[in-house]
Amino acid sequence: MALVRGGWLWRQSSILRRWKRNWFALWLDGTLGYYHDETAQDEEDRVLIHFNVRDIKIGPECHDVQPPEGRSRDGLLTVNLREGGRLHLCAETKDDALAWKTALLEANSTPVRVYSPYQDYYEVVPPNAHEATYVRSYYGPPYAGPGVTHVIVR
To answer: Which residues 6+ apart lie within 8 Å of 32 measured at CB?
Structure first.
């Protein structure tokens, strides 16, 4: 899967509210994964961004979040998801936070694309009449593995 944007961000844990630095990768299929390092091999978790983001707040709009020690409030991002979850992130600069916000909002509204090894290009997979997209994976990450069928429901 093609990488749309990658970079280091601070992520606040949901339980203990501690900040941890992770490598984030936004993939063309609309998923945001976070990893221990930039090799993107050891994934901690992933969030489906595609059609799942309610809104994104940055900087001073993130009233209920304190940035990591030594970081500016201008770099804060709060990603509010439709299922009620929140992802609190912090970029190094205000410009970097704005670039991440733009990329995430675009991934939220962009159609799912999958790689077709037979035609050697990424093809759009439109949702069917039931608002579900069936994606069959031929290769590994970011999907579970060969032969796995994923269902994305809007």
So the answer is: 24, 25, 26, 46, 47, 49, 104, 107
